[in-house]
What does this fold into?
Amino acid sequence: MLSAVATGMVPWVFVLGRTLPETAQVRHWPALWIGLDLAMALGCATTARLYRRGDGRARLSASAVAALIGMDAWFDVLTARPGTELTQALICAVPELALAGMCTWLALRTTESLS
It folds into this structure.
């Protein structure tokens, strides 16, 4: 099923590239960003707590946090206006991606090494 979805996504990406508008008006923009940042904060707290306990589920939450942080950096950069806003987004992306890398490293560690 996952292979079929992956295969189907390839042509879909091309359809999106040809049909999506260059700009869009988004409802609830602040709620979107606040919710994403709260999800990242909760994920970081959950991962830290599980890791301190030596719980192997820390690997799962670390994976989710890495994905959320990567997505946050991606959207920060791509939605920034050219100039100062884009520069700030790029500067902020560096520590964000470093944290995502740390979470990825943690997620790939063996369960035994968590204790």
